[in-house]
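User: Sequence recovery, please. Input:
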């Protein structure tokens, strides 16, 4: 990403380089999650901070309605995707906590789109 390349506070970054195992609620199996970005940055206090960043459309970071009037195929797909994403994000949060890193989900609001 150009923003990461041009930011002098970013020491290094990569795309889909980290693999985080997670258990899918859909099939109970362990799968591999590749978060969108890894970044190592210089914080305002001069310390180094590492981040794992996931970029998603705003619509995908909100839980689907629990009792819609009609349970369409799109609704079922959104519920499945929400469950899978929650499992991924919980695993990413635990992964980061164990390594003194931060996990961040970003949407178009964060990116100014």
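Assistant: Recovered sequence (113 residues):
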């Amino acid at each position: 990403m150009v923003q990461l390349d041009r930011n002098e506070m970013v020491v290094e970054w990569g795309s889909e380089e980290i693999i985080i195992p997670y258990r899918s609620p859909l099939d109970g199996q362990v799968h591999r999650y590749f978060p969108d970005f890894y970044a190592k940055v210089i914080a305002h206090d001069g310390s180094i901070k590492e981040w794992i960043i996931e970029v998603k459309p705003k619509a995908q970071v909100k839980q689907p309605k629990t009792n819609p009037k009609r349970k369409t195929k799109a609704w079922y797909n959104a519920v499945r995707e929400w469950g899978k994403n929650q499992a991924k994000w919980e695993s990413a949060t635990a992964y980061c906590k164990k390594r003194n890193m931060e996990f961040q989900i970003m949407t178009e609001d964060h990116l100014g789109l």
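Helices lie at 2-6, 73-98, 108-111.
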